[in-house]
Design a protein that fits this description.
single chain, 2 domains, 7 strands, about 375 residues, mainly alpha, two-stranded antiparallel ribbon
Amino acid sequence: MKNDFQETFNGIASTANAKCTNNQQWTKYHSKQGHGFAAEDANALWDRMHGKTVEKVGCDNSLNGPDRISNGVMIQTKYHANASKSVASAFENGSYRYGSMKLEVPRDQYDEAIKLMRSHIEKGEVPGITDPKMAEQMVLKGHYTYKEAVRIAKAGNIDSIKFDVQTQAVACAFACGLSFSVAYCTAKAKGMSHGEALKFASKQSLLSGVSTMISGVAAQQLLRTHVGRNFAAVATKTVKPIVRATMNTEVGKNMITKTASVIAGKQVAGAAAANVVTKALRTNAVVSSVVFVGTTIPDVINLCRGKISGKKFAENTVSNAASVGGGWIGASAGAAAGSMICPGIGTIVGGIVGGLGIGIGASIGAKKVFGLF
Protein backbone atom coordinates (compact mmCIF):
# COMPACT_ATOMS: atom_id res chain seq x y z
CA MET A 1 0.00 0.00 0.00
CA LYS A 2 2.82 2.37 0.88
CA ASN A 3 4.60 2.26 -2.48
CA ASP A 4 1.41 2.19 -4.50
CA PHE A 5 0.13 5.23 -2.64
CA GLN A 6 3.27 7.26 -3.20
CA GLU A 7 3.22 6.59 -6.93
CA THR A 8 -0.20 8.17 -7.31
CA PHE A 9 1.19 11.57 -6.26
CA ASN A 10 4.12 11.70 -8.67
CA GLY A 11 2.10 13.45 -11.37
CA ILE A 12 0.55 15.91 -8.93
CA ALA A 13 3.98 16.71 -7.49
CA SER A 14 5.43 17.36 -10.95
CA THR A 15 2.50 19.62 -11.86
CA ALA A 16 2.81 21.62 -8.62
CA ASN A 17 6.58 21.91 -9.13
CA ALA A 18 6.13 23.07 -12.70
CA LYS A 19 3.67 25.81 -11.73
CA CYS A 20 6.19 27.31 -9.31
CA THR A 21 9.04 26.97 -11.80
CA ASN A 22 6.98 28.43 -14.64
CA ASN A 23 6.48 31.65 -12.65
CA GLN A 24 10.22 32.37 -12.82
CA GLN A 25 12.12 33.94 -15.74
CA TRP A 26 14.64 31.08 -15.86
CA THR A 27 14.80 31.17 -19.67
CA LYS A 28 16.65 34.51 -19.38
CA TYR A 29 18.99 33.67 -16.49
CA HIS A 30 21.81 32.58 -18.83
CA SER A 31 21.82 35.87 -20.77
CA LYS A 32 24.30 38.71 -20.18
CA GLN A 33 21.78 40.50 -17.97
CA GLY A 34 20.41 37.27 -16.50
CA HIS A 35 21.14 38.37 -12.95
CA GLY A 36 18.76 41.29 -13.48
CA PHE A 37 15.87 38.92 -14.23
CA ALA A 38 16.90 36.78 -11.26
CA ALA A 39 16.81 39.92 -9.09
CA GLU A 40 13.29 40.70 -10.31
CA ASP A 41 12.13 37.18 -9.43
CA ALA A 42 13.90 37.13 -6.06
CA ASN A 43 12.65 40.52 -4.90
CA ALA A 44 9.10 39.70 -6.01
CA LEU A 45 9.26 36.44 -4.07
CA TRP A 46 10.55 38.27 -0.99
CA ASP A 47 7.58 40.65 -1.11
CA ARG A 48 5.10 37.78 -1.44
CA MET A 49 6.69 35.91 1.45
CA HIS A 50 6.23 39.01 3.59
CA GLY A 51 2.53 39.31 2.89
CA LYS A 52 2.52 41.77 -0.01
CA THR A 53 0.31 41.46 -3.07
CA VAL A 54 2.60 41.27 -6.07
CA GLU A 55 1.90 41.54 -9.79
CA LYS A 56 4.88 40.65 -11.97
CA VAL A 57 3.80 42.84 -14.85
CA GLY A 58 7.30 43.25 -16.27
CA CYS A 59 7.28 39.83 -17.92
CA ASP A 60 5.47 41.35 -20.92
CA ASN A 61 8.54 43.53 -21.61
CA SER A 62 6.49 46.69 -22.22
CA LEU A 63 8.69 49.73 -22.89
CA ASN A 64 9.52 51.63 -19.67
CA GLY A 65 6.84 49.68 -17.77
CA PRO A 66 7.25 48.53 -14.15
CA ASP A 67 8.83 45.16 -13.40
CA ARG A 68 6.33 44.55 -10.63
CA ILE A 69 3.56 46.23 -8.67
CA SER A 70 3.87 45.49 -4.95
CA ASN A 71 0.93 46.56 -2.75
CA GLY A 72 0.04 49.08 -5.45
CA VAL A 73 3.56 50.52 -5.71
CA MET A 74 5.15 50.39 -9.18
CA ILE A 75 8.77 49.24 -9.06
CA GLN A 76 11.54 49.19 -11.66
CA THR A 77 14.46 46.91 -10.73
CA LYS A 78 18.00 47.75 -11.85
CA TYR A 79 20.87 45.49 -10.83
CA HIS A 80 24.24 46.46 -12.30
CA ALA A 81 27.83 46.00 -11.13
CA ASN A 82 27.91 49.31 -9.24
CA ALA A 83 25.54 52.03 -8.04
CA SER A 84 26.59 54.44 -10.78
CA LYS A 85 25.55 52.01 -13.52
CA SER A 86 22.37 50.94 -11.72
CA VAL A 87 21.12 54.52 -11.37
CA ALA A 88 22.37 55.63 -14.79
CA SER A 89 20.38 52.85 -16.48
CA ALA A 90 17.17 54.54 -15.28
CA PHE A 91 17.97 57.68 -17.28
CA GLU A 92 17.68 58.29 -21.00
CA ASN A 93 18.74 61.44 -22.84
CA GLY A 94 19.46 63.11 -19.51
CA SER A 95 16.02 62.42 -18.00
CA TYR A 96 14.55 59.86 -15.58
CA ARG A 97 12.44 57.57 -17.77
CA TYR A 98 10.23 55.77 -15.26
CA GLY A 99 7.86 58.53 -14.10
CA SER A 100 6.52 57.87 -10.60
CA MET A 101 8.02 54.37 -10.32
CA LYS A 102 10.42 53.56 -7.51
CA LEU A 103 13.89 52.54 -8.59
CA GLU A 104 15.01 49.34 -6.86
CA VAL A 105 18.77 48.85 -6.61
CA PRO A 106 20.98 46.16 -4.99
CA ARG A 107 20.97 46.28 -1.21
CA ASP A 108 24.70 46.97 -1.08
CA GLN A 109 24.39 49.93 -3.50
CA TYR A 110 21.51 51.73 -1.78
CA ASP A 111 23.41 54.49 0.07
CA GLU A 112 25.48 55.43 -2.96
CA ALA A 113 22.39 55.29 -5.20
CA ILE A 114 20.63 57.83 -2.93
CA LYS A 115 23.54 60.27 -3.36
CA LEU A 116 23.54 59.81 -7.12
CA MET A 117 19.78 60.32 -7.37
CA ARG A 118 20.05 63.54 -5.35
CA SER A 119 22.62 64.77 -7.84
CA HIS A 120 20.31 63.99 -10.77
CA ILE A 121 17.45 65.86 -9.07
CA GLU A 122 19.67 68.89 -8.43
CA LYS A 123 20.54 68.93 -12.14
CA GLY A 124 16.85 68.97 -13.05
CA GLU A 125 16.98 65.52 -14.64
CA VAL A 126 13.96 64.09 -12.79
CA PRO A 127 10.73 65.53 -14.26
CA GLY A 128 8.33 66.89 -11.63
CA ILE A 129 10.78 66.63 -8.72
CA THR A 130 13.01 69.49 -7.54
CA ASP A 131 13.72 68.59 -3.90
CA PRO A 132 16.89 66.43 -3.59
CA LYS A 133 15.49 64.94 -0.37
CA MET A 134 12.92 63.12 -2.51
CA ALA A 135 15.70 60.78 -3.61
CA GLU A 136 15.08 58.63 -0.53
CA GLN A 137 11.47 58.14 -1.62
CA MET A 138 12.42 57.40 -5.21
CA VAL A 139 15.13 54.81 -4.55
CA LEU A 140 14.15 51.47 -3.04
CA LYS A 141 16.65 49.18 -1.31
CA GLY A 142 16.50 45.73 -2.88
CA HIS A 143 16.37 42.68 -0.65
CA TYR A 144 19.43 41.14 -2.33
CA THR A 145 22.92 42.33 -3.14
CA TYR A 146 24.31 42.42 -6.67
CA LYS A 147 26.50 39.34 -6.07
CA GLU A 148 23.58 37.41 -4.59
CA ALA A 149 21.51 38.12 -7.72
CA VAL A 150 24.39 36.92 -9.91
CA ARG A 151 24.59 33.68 -7.93
CA ILE A 152 20.81 33.15 -7.98
CA ALA A 153 20.95 33.16 -11.79
CA LYS A 154 23.48 30.29 -11.75
CA ALA A 155 23.21 26.65 -10.74
CA GLY A 156 25.06 24.87 -7.96
CA ASN A 157 25.44 27.47 -5.21
CA ILE A 158 23.81 28.17 -1.84
CA ASP A 159 21.99 31.34 -2.94
CA SER A 160 20.32 29.77 -5.98
CA ILE A 161 19.38 26.62 -4.04
CA LYS A 162 17.95 28.70 -1.18
CA PHE A 163 15.89 30.70 -3.69
CA ASP A 164 14.60 27.50 -5.31
CA VAL A 165 13.62 26.07 -1.93
CA GLN A 166 11.62 29.22 -1.24
CA THR A 167 9.87 29.14 -4.63
CA GLN A 168 8.99 25.46 -4.22
CA ALA A 169 7.59 25.94 -0.70
CA VAL A 170 4.08 26.46 -2.12
CA ALA A 171 4.27 23.22 -4.14
CA CYS A 172 5.58 21.41 -1.07
CA ALA A 173 2.73 22.67 1.12
CA PHE A 174 0.20 21.67 -1.53
CA ALA A 175 1.66 18.17 -1.87
CA CYS A 176 1.77 17.69 1.91
CA GLY A 177 -1.84 18.75 2.40
CA LEU A 178 -3.19 16.69 -0.48
CA SER A 179 -1.15 13.63 0.47
CA PHE A 180 -2.33 13.79 4.07
CA SER A 181 -6.01 14.09 3.12
CA VAL A 182 -6.03 11.29 0.58
CA ALA A 183 -3.80 9.02 2.68
CA TYR A 184 -6.04 9.40 5.72
CA CYS A 185 -9.21 8.62 3.74
CA THR A 186 -7.49 5.66 2.07
CA ALA A 187 -6.30 4.28 5.42
CA LYS A 188 -9.76 4.61 6.99
CA ALA A 189 -11.34 2.90 3.99
CA LYS A 190 -8.98 -0.03 4.54
CA GLY A 191 -10.14 -0.39 8.15
CA MET A 192 -7.40 1.41 10.07
CA SER A 193 -8.22 3.10 13.37
CA HIS A 194 -8.19 6.89 13.67
CA GLY A 195 -4.74 6.82 15.31
CA GLU A 196 -3.26 4.43 12.74
CA ALA A 197 -4.71 6.46 9.89
CA LEU A 198 -3.25 9.68 11.30
CA LYS A 199 0.17 8.08 11.68
CA PHE A 200 0.06 6.66 8.16
CA ALA A 201 -1.19 9.93 6.65
CA SER A 202 1.45 11.98 8.49
CA LYS A 203 4.24 9.77 7.20
CA GLN A 204 2.94 9.86 3.62
CA SER A 205 2.51 13.64 3.85
CA LEU A 206 6.13 14.04 4.96
CA LEU A 207 7.44 11.72 2.24
CA SER A 208 5.40 13.51 -0.42
CA GLY A 209 6.53 16.94 0.78
CA VAL A 210 10.21 15.97 0.83
CA SER A 211 10.10 14.35 -2.62
CA THR A 212 8.21 17.33 -4.04
CA MET A 213 10.73 19.79 -2.64
CA ILE A 214 13.76 17.81 -3.83
CA SER A 215 12.39 17.25 -7.33
CA GLY A 216 11.31 20.89 -7.67
CA VAL A 217 14.68 22.28 -6.61
CA ALA A 218 16.51 19.77 -8.80
CA ALA A 219 14.41 20.79 -11.81
CA GLN A 220 15.03 24.50 -11.29
CA GLN A 221 18.77 23.90 -10.89
CA LEU A 222 18.78 21.79 -14.06
CA LEU A 223 17.02 24.51 -16.05
CA ARG A 224 19.86 26.92 -15.25
CA THR A 225 22.30 24.66 -17.07
CA HIS A 226 23.00 24.28 -20.78
CA VAL A 227 21.73 20.69 -20.68
CA GLY A 228 18.49 21.75 -19.00
CA ARG A 229 17.84 24.53 -21.49
CA ASN A 230 18.43 22.16 -24.41
CA PHE A 231 16.02 19.68 -22.84
CA ALA A 232 13.43 22.45 -22.49
CA ALA A 233 13.95 23.44 -26.13
CA VAL A 234 13.28 19.88 -27.28
CA ALA A 235 10.18 19.73 -25.07
CA THR A 236 8.95 23.00 -26.62
CA LYS A 237 9.30 21.59 -30.14
CA THR A 238 7.37 18.51 -29.04
CA VAL A 239 4.39 20.22 -27.40
CA LYS A 240 4.03 23.18 -29.78
CA PRO A 241 2.42 21.14 -32.63
CA ILE A 242 0.03 19.56 -30.12
CA VAL A 243 -1.10 22.94 -28.81
CA ARG A 244 -1.39 24.29 -32.36
CA ALA A 245 -3.57 21.32 -33.38
CA THR A 246 -5.78 21.80 -30.32
CA MET A 247 -6.29 25.46 -31.27
CA ASN A 248 -7.77 24.35 -34.61
CA THR A 249 -11.03 23.26 -32.95
CA GLU A 250 -13.50 25.58 -31.22
CA VAL A 251 -13.58 23.50 -28.05
CA GLY A 252 -9.80 23.23 -28.01
CA LYS A 253 -9.35 26.94 -28.60
CA ASN A 254 -11.71 27.75 -25.73
CA MET A 255 -9.88 25.32 -23.43
CA ILE A 256 -6.46 26.74 -24.34
CA THR A 257 -7.70 30.31 -23.85
CA LYS A 258 -9.25 29.60 -20.45
CA THR A 259 -6.23 27.68 -19.21
CA ALA A 260 -3.75 30.28 -20.46
CA SER A 261 -5.73 33.10 -18.83
CA VAL A 262 -5.61 31.32 -15.46
CA ILE A 263 -1.88 30.62 -15.80
CA ALA A 264 -1.07 34.18 -16.89
CA GLY A 265 -3.37 35.77 -14.32
CA LYS A 266 -4.97 37.93 -17.01
CA GLN A 267 -7.06 37.53 -20.14
CA VAL A 268 -5.06 36.21 -23.10
CA ALA A 269 -6.21 34.74 -26.39
CA GLY A 270 -5.01 33.51 -29.77
CA ALA A 271 -1.28 33.11 -30.31
CA ALA A 272 -0.52 34.58 -26.87
CA ALA A 273 -2.67 31.93 -25.16
CA ALA A 274 -1.05 29.14 -27.18
CA ASN A 275 2.37 30.45 -26.19
CA VAL A 276 1.48 30.52 -22.47
CA VAL A 277 0.18 26.94 -22.53
CA THR A 278 3.16 25.72 -24.61
CA LYS A 279 5.59 27.15 -22.05
CA ALA A 280 3.63 25.60 -19.17
CA LEU A 281 3.61 22.15 -20.81
CA ARG A 282 7.30 22.47 -21.64
CA THR A 283 8.16 23.15 -18.01
CA ASN A 284 5.85 20.33 -16.92
CA ALA A 285 7.68 17.91 -19.20
CA VAL A 286 11.08 18.86 -17.77
CA VAL A 287 9.94 18.68 -14.14
CA SER A 288 8.10 15.40 -14.73
CA SER A 289 11.30 13.90 -16.12
CA VAL A 290 13.18 14.97 -12.99
CA VAL A 291 10.45 13.45 -10.79
CA PHE A 292 10.65 10.20 -12.77
CA VAL A 293 14.44 9.99 -12.44
CA GLY A 294 14.21 10.76 -8.73
CA THR A 295 11.65 8.01 -8.11
CA THR A 296 13.64 5.52 -10.16
CA ILE A 297 17.03 5.98 -8.45
CA PRO A 298 16.08 4.02 -5.28
CA ASP A 299 15.01 1.07 -7.44
CA VAL A 300 18.29 1.22 -9.39
CA ILE A 301 20.19 1.03 -6.10
CA ASN A 302 18.04 -1.86 -4.86
CA LEU A 303 18.51 -3.70 -8.17
CA CYS A 304 22.30 -3.32 -7.97
CA ARG A 305 22.25 -4.59 -4.39
CA GLY A 306 20.13 -7.57 -5.37
CA LYS A 307 17.22 -6.50 -3.18
CA ILE A 308 14.74 -6.55 -6.07
CA SER A 309 14.54 -8.64 -9.25
CA GLY A 310 14.87 -7.35 -12.78
CA LYS A 311 11.15 -7.95 -13.30
CA LYS A 312 10.26 -5.95 -10.18
CA PHE A 313 12.53 -3.14 -11.33
CA ALA A 314 10.81 -3.07 -14.72
CA GLU A 315 7.38 -3.07 -13.04
CA ASN A 316 8.29 -0.16 -10.78
CA THR A 317 9.92 1.83 -13.59
CA VAL A 318 6.96 1.50 -15.95
CA SER A 319 4.53 2.26 -13.12
CA ASN A 320 6.49 5.36 -12.11
CA ALA A 321 6.61 6.60 -15.70
CA ALA A 322 2.89 6.01 -16.13
CA SER A 323 1.94 7.76 -12.89
CA VAL A 324 4.18 10.76 -13.56
CA GLY A 325 3.12 11.17 -17.19
CA GLY A 326 -0.52 10.37 -16.53
CA GLY A 327 -0.59 12.58 -13.48
CA TRP A 328 0.64 15.75 -15.14
CA ILE A 329 -1.41 15.16 -18.28
CA GLY A 330 -4.49 14.54 -16.13
CA ALA A 331 -3.80 17.56 -13.95
CA SER A 332 -3.31 19.79 -17.00
CA ALA A 333 -6.46 18.50 -18.73
CA GLY A 334 -8.46 18.63 -15.51
CA ALA A 335 -7.35 22.19 -14.81
CA ALA A 336 -8.30 23.22 -18.34
CA ALA A 337 -11.75 21.65 -18.03
CA GLY A 338 -12.22 23.20 -14.59
CA SER A 339 -11.23 26.59 -15.97
CA MET A 340 -13.98 26.38 -18.58
CA ILE A 341 -16.58 25.70 -15.89
CA CYS A 342 -15.36 27.99 -13.13
CA PRO A 343 -11.98 29.75 -13.51
CA GLY A 344 -10.04 29.76 -10.26
CA ILE A 345 -11.58 27.16 -7.96
CA GLY A 346 -12.59 25.03 -10.93
CA THR A 347 -9.00 25.06 -12.14
CA ILE A 348 -7.71 23.83 -8.79
CA VAL A 349 -10.37 21.14 -8.31
CA GLY A 350 -10.11 20.00 -11.92
CA GLY A 351 -6.34 19.74 -11.65
CA ILE A 352 -6.51 17.66 -8.46
CA VAL A 353 -9.22 15.32 -9.72
CA GLY A 354 -7.68 14.93 -13.16
CA GLY A 355 -4.17 14.41 -11.82
CA LEU A 356 -5.16 11.86 -9.22
CA GLY A 357 -7.59 10.03 -11.47
CA ILE A 358 -5.38 9.61 -14.49
CA GLY A 359 -2.21 9.21 -12.41
CA ILE A 360 -3.71 6.38 -10.39
CA GLY A 361 -5.32 4.82 -13.45
CA ALA A 362 -2.09 4.91 -15.43
CA SER A 363 -0.13 3.37 -12.58
CA ILE A 364 -2.67 0.58 -12.07
CA GLY A 365 -2.87 -0.06 -15.81
CA ALA A 366 0.90 -0.38 -16.04
CA LYS A 367 0.99 -2.86 -13.20
CA LYS A 368 -1.76 -4.96 -14.74
CA VAL A 369 0.46 -5.40 -17.75
CA PHE A 370 2.90 -7.14 -15.44
CA GLY A 371 0.19 -9.35 -13.98
CA LEU A 372 0.17 -7.80 -10.54
CA PHE A 373 -3.61 -7.93 -10.28
